[in-house]
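Hey, quick one: can you model this chain's 3D structure?
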Amino acid sequence: MSDYYVEPRPGDLIEISRLGYKHWAIYVGSGYVIHLAPKDNLVQASVNSIMSILSEKAVVKKELLWEIARSDACRVNNKYDRKYKPLPANQIVQEAESLLGTEVNYRLASQNCEHFVTQLRYGTARSDQVRETVASAVAIVGVGVVLGFATVLGSLFLPSKHEED
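Sure thing. Here's the predicted structure for all 165 residues.
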């Protein structure tokens, strides 16, 4: 993460750091972002993305960035700009605004908020967040298996306290 503030421009991807995950929005100007939110309007903005995980549907909403981010860190993160050419900013904003109020499918692994905003910016839906989370989980399980295996081998080949006595 960068230590300095970058003023967002229309069409920029906004990454909002939540506890344990990232929420994504697209900046559309004048302090507003468009993002996926749960259908239930009673849910507070700071927990909206996690609540969408529990639902199979989300709604495209336009809200002030500071209301979405609250006290969570946020930043411009156009992380795929080297791999994909961004669409023109006016096209990104126009498409995002045309979707306002639309109910969309939400699936954590294939249709999440990062997929939504990268589709708008690049014309390609991407989410490394899912891949990175799965890779981390596999690594943790792998370490656990190795440690378990080492413990079993150690108990088989190392003399026990009773044998030493």
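One thing worth noting: Residues 128-157 form the longest helix (30 residues).
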